[in-house]
Design brief:
Elements lengths: L9 H23 L5 H54 L1
């Protein structure tokens, strides 16, 4: 029982990295040109970095959970198939 796992293209990876870089430059430029004190700019910069970090962490946690659920389901399917095979063998 194999499942299809779609591959992500290199073009999509490059686009994603490019968009991340663009967003980071735009955020840094916005904070730099902000008419505020240095401490306020630092607060906004730290908040932006924390937002990026937590977004990556949430994405990783969700992906890890999905992969562990998939592995658990494969194990359960294998156990069920083994039990069914044993039950059908006992019938004959």
């Amino acid at each position: 029982m194999t499942t299809y796992a779609p591959k992500v293209s290199n073009a999509w990876n490059l686009f994603t990295y490019f968009m991340f870089g663009t967003a980071a430059v735009m955020m840094a430029g916005g904070i730099w040109s902000l008419d505020a004190s240095f401490s306020a700019k630092g607060y906004y910069a730290m908040s932006a970095l924390m937002l990026v970090y937590t977004t990556a962490s949430i994405t990783k946690v969700l992906r890890d959970k999905e992969e562990s659920d998939r592995i658990y389901n494969k194990i359960e399917d294998a156990k069920t198939e083994r039990l069914l095979a044993e039950a059908s063998r006992d019938e004959y």
